[in-house]
Amino acid sequence: MPTLELNFAKAPGQVAYRWKASEKAFAMPVRVGNPEHWQVIRPTTEWQTMETPLARDAFQVATDLYYVNVSKE
Predict the structure, then answer these.
(1) CA contacts within 13 A on the Cβ side of 28
(2) Rounded distance, CA 45 to CA 71, Å?
């Protein structure tokens, strides 16, 4: 099962993300952020960053819509 890795330690107001998956070209879009206003990101297996006003504990992934694991660092 793929794991969406989230890293909040890069810089304030930013989160780094990538997929950890056995398939090197895995790149499934996923909804993240706040359930009232989801943002769709398109992670790959390479690190990317996005700006977010949400803190680590408030930042959510729509795990009810996807069969994935989530790792927050």
Answers:
(1) 17
(2) 14
